[in-house]
Amino acid sequence: MNRWREEHITAGNAITYGDLVMQYIKLNESNKPFEKIPHGRYINFLSDYLAGEKGATKEEAIGAWEQLKELDIPKDYDRWVKHTTSY
Q1: At 37, is the pLDDT very low, low, confident or very high (cuts 50, 70, 90)?
Q2: CA torsion through residues 71, 74, 76, 77, sign
Q3: I want to staple 77 with a disulfide (CB 3.0 to 4.6 A). Which of 10, 22, 48, 83 is the partner?
């Protein structure tokens, strides 16, 4: 949404609050999920962990994140899986 807004402002187009609302609605009607920015972030790890670990709880995901923070590896779910299954 910010990219859309920036493009319009850069092009010299005036944007109203209504324009923003309509763009927001348009983006939310899309069936295509938003692309995740590949970055070692807590929220990305928790999302991937809960999707990848059948029956996992939020508390287990947080515990896994706490373990991952102590490791000298990239902070993402795939690396955590590789590390924990390499033992």
Answers
A1: low
A2: negative
A3: 48
Q: Crossing angle for the helix pair 58-70 and 77-85, nearest 10 degrees?
A: 80
Number of structural domains the chain divides into: 2
Which spans in 11-54 are helix H?
17-29, 42-52
Distance of CA 54 to the CA centre of its chain: 20
Distance CA 84, CA 10 (A): 48
- Tell me the C-alpha distance between 77 and 34, whole Å: 19
Q: Which domain holds residue 48?
A: 42-85
**Identity at 28, one-letter amino acid code:** N
- Measured CA to CA, the distance from residue 73 to residue 82 in angstroms comes to 10
